[in-house]
Amino acid sequence: MDRFLVKQALGGRLGKGQERSLEEEQDPGEEAALLGREAGGSRKRLRRDSEEERDPAEEGGLRWQHIRAEGLDCDYTILFDRAEAGELFQQLEKEVDYFTGALARVQVFGKWYQVPRKQAAYGDAGMTYSFSGLTLSPKPWTPVLERVRDRVSRVTGQTFNFVLVNRYADGRDHIGEHRDDERELAPGSPIASVSFGACRDFIFRHKDSRGRSPARQVDVVRLPLAHGSLLVMNPPTNTHWYHSLPTRKRVLAARINLTFRHILPPAK
Ligand SMILES: O=C(O)CCC(=O)C(=O)O
């Protein structure tokens, strides 16, 4: 997981404040393939599907939006209604124990920075996971994390043995551009991202379209991730596209995101 190092590639050796302004500066200029626009297309597609061949995803009572671009394959739905999502958010606030101290900091070119959000890792016993230069053993699943995991498994048909929890206190907290392409991930497995609390923009940027002199121009894809939503990032999305959650100064409320992964046991 190179979510801190990639910031260097974007703007050279950036300080923390510079990272933030870079992210904010990029937003107005983005020729975003907005979910709003995409969703219009997807909704039309879903309606057509239901008229002509029925969309099996709608049979579970969920309406899926299929987001596709070159090498990007994602599915989005509202998994929990407002009331249940609110209850789960409160439960997560009680149960999740976030990293502190050295685990909440990251070293970039020899300098230590506070991670601009809170993080925690939970999962099956015996798993280890590396991110931001650290190798971690996840804490055992809590009841609320198991409940969300099991619901995600039911609707996706996939199993998950690890979850990374990110908590953004408000719109100043963020995550820089990175790919979830760690070697621990089971090949071919999707990453399922569940969001609670404040709606935040999630930005996909194609790997050829990054930096000051990109190899080519590919429109970014912007998805507002709503309270109670599920975004499934299917392969090969994380091979070709970086993602980030940029700062949004106008957002005053907290958000919690859970990314469920299927990771391989450590090599003996
Ligand atoms: O908070 C989010 O939606 C993004 C989290 C993320 O990018 C990650 O866990 O890799």
UniProtKB/TrEMBL annotation:
InterPro entries per UniProt: AlkB-like, AlkB-like_sf, ALKBH2, Oxoglu/Fe-dep_dioxygenase_dom
**Location of the region described as Disordered in the Swiss-Prot/TrEMBL record:** 10-60
Q: Which cofactor does it need?
A: Fe(2+)
| Record-linked Pfam families | 2OG-FeII_Oxy_2 (PF13532)
* Residues passing through the membrane, by range: none
Fe2OG dioxygenase domain: residues covered: 159-264
This chain's protein is named: DNA oxidative demethylase ALKBH2
Species whose genome carries this gene: Echinops telfairi
> What gene name is given for the protein in this entry?
ALKBH2
